[in-house]
Amino acid sequence: MAGGITETGEPYSAFVGLVYMFNLIIGTGALTMPKAFATAGWAVSLVLISFLGFMSYMTTTFVIEAMAAANAQLRWKRREQEEEIDSESSEYSYDDVMVRGRSETETKPILSVQRSGSHVDHFDIVERVEMGQMASMFFNKVGVNMFYICIIVYLYGDLAIYAAAVPISLMEVACGNHSCSTDGVKYNDTDPCWGSVTRKDAYRVFLSTFTVLLGPFTFFSAQKTKYLQILTSLMRWIAFTMMIVLALIQITKHSGKGNPPVASFSGVPNLFGVCVYSFMCQHSLPSLITPISEKKHVGRLVLADYTLILGFYMLLSFTAIFCFDSSLLHDMYTLNFTDNCDVLGIPVLRYFLGLFPVFTISTNFPIIAVTLCNNWKTLFHRDGGTYPWVVDRIVFPLITLIPPVLVAFCTHNLESLVGITGAYAGTGIQYVIPAFLVYFSRRHLEPVMGRDAVNKHQSPFRHAFWVWFVLLWAAFCLMFVTANIILTDTRK
To answer: Which spans are transmembrane here (predicted)?
Structure first.
């Protein structure tokens, strides 16, 4: 997940919504983007990131259209229930109506219902309908289970990335050379950190400490984090601004050491995963879009956001690859400033940038862990059933916490972790799920709404061709990334 979870209770303006969305997307993925950008070559990276930004924008409009369709579905169900209660002919509850889905009661067009009263825009997005609820409304049982499995895999990847990023930053600060006697040295895991303790040992010590301190939050709920996230967001933008400005100063002084290749296709698969991960916001759109008070310009807002985000990624990546030697770029971009006194000579600021991921990621880890735990409970939930206390409070938190920590113990290659998470689970959330949501929501509501009904939040890419294009692109990308991984392992 890019930038954490935004708490959205009170309505806000479209401009505030734009800021929220921008802040949500820009996160951990941005810190790994420069390394992936340099590995694939600047020209190839420029084309790929622009195309993937466009694809992400398209699927974002798919999700918004599905949200409007879900609101229309809920309104129609309530209107039908009210009419049945008034006529004293209802034989089932509201929950029964929701479960029955596309039954015989849905053959009456909604337009005929609304003619009897005042005009109501049934597609107005006023009720927050999360993606899980939309999946339950428009998918069958298999589709719902596949949705939750995809979300769970993605959140596991998120937690593994977070669990590795914090110890890496702590290790680099504790074991790096901050005396300015060296310039951009690349260390190995077997190099000493404290006496006989190697850098890899130090990393695992920090990972163990991180797990002990933040792991227990998985056993509880994460609430009231609004002000904490405001603080971390402020730190994030101070850090990003510093890095861009410092790199620009170095380049304008003709002191930049970067000489990136124009194209290196071997780095494309990993760049693809990093880009997908970095543009991820589809799963958080209900929380972002619903509270916007005036939704007339939501489409323009989303387009403006993606344009700004694409420009930001390009600015960050280009200043990085031309300021630093591409072969010495760290997986976590902030670490390039910790031991390079030519770029940043103030010790306090070097420590701030080095430790910046520690503060921001540590606040998000408990929130993502609790979210994953809740998704596990939802996946196995049965109507009317409850979990035993041990299962609810012990088993689910443990299966949430242990796997990502084990992955982080085995590897701290952030570029690969981000790439794999984005390429597989990220492809499902960013491409496959939105495409199926908008496809089935259209099929689901057409008999009910009638062909004359117009969804004012309909995607600009309304033709069915775009849905199939997204699905074919997702299938091609998965096959391409998988084949590259297999071929790479075979060569080794």
So the answer is: 12-31, 43-70, 138-157, 202-222, 234-251, 301-328, 348-373, 394-414, 420-441, 465-487
